[in-house]
Amino acid sequence: TAGNKIFHFGACRVSMSMTEIRAGFTAIKTNIQSRDPIRSLSILSHPHSLHKVKSPDRCCITHHLFDFYVDKVFKHCKTEDSFVNRKISSIANSFLSLRRKLRQCHEQNNCVCGEESTEKLKQILANYEGLNVTSAAMKSLGELDILLDWME
Amino acid sequence: SGELYCSLPNPRNVHFESINMKNVLHWSAPAGTGNGVLYKVKYLVYGVGKWIRKPECRNINTTWCDLSSETSDYEEQYYASVKAFLNGMCSDWVETTRFNPLTDTKIDPPMISVSSTDNSISIILTAPEKWKRSPEEESISLLQVYPGLQYNVSVLNKKTKKRWLFSISNNTLVVPWLEPGTAYCVSAQIHVTTPLLDSGFSKEHCIATLKDK
Amino acid sequence: EALLPAPQNISILSTNMKHFLTWNPVIIHGETVRYSVEFQGEYERDYANESWIPISECSLTTATLCNVTEDISAPVAYRLCVRAQVGATRSPWGALQGFFNRATTSLTPPLLKVVADGYHLLVELEDLGPACQFHVLYWQKGQDSKVQQKVMKEVSSVAHLDTMEAGAEYCVKAQTHVEAINRSSSFSPTQCVRAQGDTSMWLV
User: What domain of life (chain A) (predicted)?
Assistant: First the structure.
């Protein structure tokens, strides 16, 4: 069931459910990842893994990654497959709602960006801009489970 | 050897079969080839992209290769690939889909131990361990890998044929106030909510409450 | 100039997080009228040029009802529309009035069956789908201040609630709860059952 959980991102506490996003992603994971032929580059997890991020920086990185996916990724992921497009819509709309919750932390100044998170975000954007838009967006969408696994 | 002529049909259905993060690559022989086909295996860490050969799976005639050791870091994701050889011919490399050990593994049912008094049964559940390289290596329970792990426990009264279901988060369950001298059969399942993973139900363990004194 | 009128009286029937779009049939004598449904979430409005997404299960359907549950799967405001088609002739799009947010779904209390099996209090609950779980409240009759609550997620068979004192009467009621929208239904009628044995057993 859509289990709400309290996520702790440093000082920021947010009640969210990732269940529907994960279900939507699982339904299209193989399809999306098969459109990404590049094995030697990861947008999110190399060279520095998200798992190395320290707790105080978690909120900033999560908040900016939500922005990254909403502003840069989803819009370039339209496919010829109606089922895939519907699941992407479901994920994108869920991201909007989660981003709103994280924004509250941002406004309460519980979401400060330290040097490490700024560096990590720069690396992610550099990885993204190293590819053409569609390939970069499709690769980022295919790595959604990396973000979900790290968040959960 | 010189460049081989790669017109052999490809290995089929190349995929990981993973149980408790014991990650074994499996495939089917190329169509229309009898015995004598040999295989090579390589793998890579997604995002690093350097294919690495698996020496123990070079020129093998089996259609599986254990890559548990190479894929044991479940914070990474992986690809693996297989190539077939026969009579001087070879196939193309055939890849798996991207393998995420954390979400793509299957979990065994929990181990159960049951004891009884005259009017109660006590159940202790043990989650399976993550695969490890050798018995000496430190054991990691899947409870540590999946902190949200819960148990569904089924208790069947063999006399009345009534089955009760319990959902518990800790690993012990005492069912008091039962009928003396009655057989109860217990089985249990692991339920993980994030990511969504369920084991099957375990084999039934039956025990009788002691007869009334 | 469209010969075919747009479908009218478009509305959403939403109960326990299952959402259905319905509309009045367009009647064209001697013709089979088919319908197509599309949806638009907040993301499509604000970030994807107000694009609409077709629902394939309800493309060129003759039904006047479409299950949109799988697509209304985020806590945002959605717009929905439907048009009619006869052969190559299409009507204008008819739109649902305003927006639909799944938080407005109506929630019904679950069907509840309470069973006393010896000293054990058991319940059977109707499965209302993956989005719904249940808050089950139970108490010993006469001790209304000591109400206990259990949250039940999966309901596949007879679920064990608690053990009972011999001969005591216990009462149970349940409500449907949806975490995704943080809302609950009203409670089901209370049901009471009595445990085996007589109360004097406890005085010894």
Answer: Eukaryota
